[in-house]
Amino acid sequence: MKTTRRELLKRGAKTGLLLLGGTALYEVVSGSELLTGGAPLRHAMAVDLRRCLQEEGCDRCAAACHGAHNVPRIADELRAVKWIWKDEMGRIFPETVGRIANAELREKKTVVLCNHCTNAPCVRVCPTGATFSREDGIVMMDQHRCIGCRYCMAACPYGSRSFNWYDPRRFLSEDAINPDYPTRTRGVVEKCDFCAERLDTGGRPLCVEACRAGALIHGNLNDPGSDLRRALQGRFALRRRAELDTDPGIYYLL
Amino acid sequence: MRKSSIVLISAALAALLASPFIVSLLSPPSPPPRPELPRDVKECVRPAAQMRAEHMVLLHQWRDDVVRRGDRREVMIGGVSYAKSLTGSCMKCHRHKEKFCDRCHGALSSAPKCWDCHVYRKEVRP
Amino acid sequence: MIQKAFHGGKLYWLLLGALAAVAAAGVWFYLRQLELGLSVTGMVRDVSWGLYIAQFTFFVGVAASAVTVVLPYYLHDHRAFGKITIMGEFLAVSSVVMCMLFIFVDLGQPFRVLHVFLYPSPTSPMFWDTVVLFGYLVLNLVIAWTVLGAEYRGTPPPGWVRPLIYLSIPWAVSIHTITAFLYAGLPGRHLWLSAITAARFLASAFSSGPSLLILLCMAVRRFTTFDPGKEAIRSMGKIVAYAFSAHVFFILLEIFTSFYSGVGSHRESFVYLFRGLEGHAALAPALWASAILALAALVLIVVPKTRNSLRVLPLTVAMVFVSIWLEKGLGFVVGGFIPSPLGAVTEYRPTAPEIFITAGVWALGFMLLAAFFKVFITVRREA
Q1: Residue A72: its pLDDT value, please?
Q2: Distances in Å between the alpha carbon of C20 and those of B110, C27, C359, C369, C370?
Q3: Residue A18: which of C122, C126, C346 has the nearest Cβ?
């Protein structure tokens, strides 16, 4: 345990310095844990509403995601755990779609998930660095570190985070568990991690793979030649609560 | 309270706190735990002595590489490539948690929380 | 000096016994919560903070309010407070301990609590809140114990304690300011996202804290041989009058901006709290009670005749305390979550285990306070 102790001392010393005003705030967090901005790779996604809204009642994306990531199926909707799910357009975009007269369009459903904000409030408030921004734009959770204070849930302006009020294993049948992906434990917060485990090895997010309508387009936002950029070209796109300047990475194509 | 009663109570408390240590010093040493090693594989990712002392350090390094730094490159050791993964690498050789992990950890009453989240399933292990 | 806490009459032990019984019930329910998770509480996905964090917020205010007796005594030489500054500091110590317990019982993974220090995160107000609360605890404990210890030995307090006392004054303001920053910096929670949240917190703290201290002084006058003095109690009444007027004023400011601007999202939480949304109005009775108590108490505390009457004052400050408890220790935190980011109106009702655990923390805090006051009163009597 030598390394850990040394690391702890180092961090302690750095905090000490900080308290004395000797170090700039951002230097205390080690470089790789901070988003640097202008990175060559910025993972992002577009939801093509023309395609998605047509598939009423379809939940292939959520089923694929929740199945592979061992998301517990909790009947108590108020304490449910969700990574990606469908909600009403009027509720997703209260300031635009929520105000149009056409009730049918307001109540149409499309997908919501973590927005993987560049300027993520959840990352800013986390007292242990359990939630952090990767340089490629993924807002990641380190489940080993989460103390379950739920400050991130108060901070997220999208309601994208879920807490494990229960032991999640109680809601996963033994044969339904994917042994290659960990479950979570009681008392930690979780959310979509953009399939970091797949993106890191050159794959695409599972929801994108599972969508038969081709409504979900993933790609590198900073690469003008990516599928995502081509999809965004020449079409209007909405982002959720853009006025908050969190810079969400999920675009909804009109 | 009188001084004498304070001293008496303190002494009793100290004796109570020290009792487990005294008992274990007086009782015969328990046999060392014998974790079962895999028969078909001879080399681990590090020498046995190092693994015995520092396996958690290695696991924490792997964990931080993968989860925090997104560094999933495999590690080459003795010509063999290993994914930085508890269930994907360690448990491929040390197939039985009960006969390996649990024997030492049980004997030492140390209960790491790995399996609260990471999935260990006997029936899927060959 | 600590041995003084172990000598007491029947009443003292009866009080400690009763509090210990409540605390034991709290511990029992906490063990259940440890086993079953936070599902035993009324908190849900959309209202993910409840009674625990609201009580934490409220008691940070009570802790900070020690400054309302320390500052007049040490900076303005207000002699009447000489008798009660130590009581104020002990109240601060007990309150900070309660705050820490409330945070602890709220954690989903309490055994990992030290991660806050193992992985310090300076961008998080929660990290800084932990730092300043610990500092405030140590400061007040050291100050109160040293000054009282000097009195016990019949010597003047050592010189080094003076700078610590001066430091404790801005430090008291810092703990509640940073607690307000927990809320005031979150985008998309419009009840909280307000520059005057910290000012509101300080105003409500400096009304609820001295109110509690007045009630404690009256109890001490009644049940012990120690008399904090009428002048001290009346001075605190004056502090409550100013602070509570500011508190009510600040709330009216929030209501003006939210409603006159016509911006719906700023208005919704207030509408929920006082009238309800989509037929859900569980907190409305509590918030109306708070408002009515506030207006009545405001009249009683501002009019000199009723403020200076030691018969009316306890009733008035009890109303102030309850009014702020309902507004800040319940409405502010819960109301900030409703409606949810996706526009859902989900109500929060604390469960029995949650209420017992909360009562348990209160009981532990008041046991500590009773022991501190016992030491203080005994030393004062013998000195």
Answers
A1: 95
A2: 33, 10, 11, 13, 12
A3: C122
Residue C3, min C-alpha distance to chain B (Å): 7
User: In 3D, which of C191, C181, C200, C124 has the Cα closest to residue C337?
Assistant: C191
B67 part of contact set with chain A, CB < 8 Å: yes
Residue ranges making up the domain that contains A92: 35-253
Chains with ≥3 CB–CB distances under 8 Å to C: A, B
Tell me how many domains chain A contains: 2
Q: What is the pLDDT of residues C75-130, one digit of tens each?
A: 998 888 988 899 999 999 999 999 999 999 999 999 999 999 999 999 999 999 99
Residue A176: per-residue pLDDT: 85
Domain count of the fold of chain C: 1
Determine the residue of chain C that is closest to A162 in CA distance. Answer: C45
- Token reading at A206: 């599972």
> Six-digit token pair at C174?
């810092």
Residue A102 phi/psi, 5° resolution?
-70, 100
- What CATH number is associated with residue A228? 3.30.70.20
A137 and A170 in a single domain? The answer is yes
Which of A2, A32, A185 is closest, CB to CB, to B117?
A: A185
The domains of chain B are located at 48-124
pLDDT at A25: 34
Instruction: Give the chains touching B; criterion: ≥3 Cβ pairs < 8 Å.
Output: A, C
The residue of chain A with its CA nearest to that of B60 is A4
Mean pLDDT of the residues in chain A? 86
Q: ipTM, 2 decimals?
A: 0.92
Residue A20 pLDDT more than 50? no
Residue C231 domain boundaries: 2-382
Contact by Cβ (8 Å): C46, C335: no
3-state secondary structure A101-118: CCHHHHCCEEEEECCCCC
Q: How far is CA C227 from CA C4, C16, C80, C238, C307, in A?
A: 18, 21, 12, 19, 19
For residue C324, give both structure tokens: 């702020």
Q: How many residues does chain B have?
A: 126
Indicate whether A93 and A218 sit together in one domain. Answer: yes
Claim to verify: residue A172 and residue A225 sit in the same structural domain = yes
Contact C331, C287 (CB under 8 A): yes
Q: Please provide the size of chain C in residues.
A: 383
In whole angstroms, give the CA distance from residue A148 to residue A155: 14
pLDDT band at residue A31, thresholds of 50, 70 and 90?
very low
Residue among C266, C270, C268 nearest C344 (CA): C268
Instruction: Encode pLDDT of A152-202 as tens digits.
Output: 999 999 999 999 999 999 999 888 899 889 999 999 999 999 999 999 988
Contact C287, C273 (CB under 8 A): yes
CB pair distance less than 8 Å for A196 and B70: yes
Percent of chain C with pLDDT over 70: 100
What CA–CA distance (Å, rounded) separates A223 from A39? 10
The H helix count followed by the E strand count for chain C is 15, 0
**Preceding peptide of C339 cis, ω within 30°:** yes
User: Do A9 and A63 belong to one domain?
Assistant: no
Q: C330: distance to nearest CA of chain A, Å?
A: 16
Residue C260 in contact with partner chain B when CB distance is under 8 A: no
Q: C353: closest CA among C15, C35, C14?
A: C35
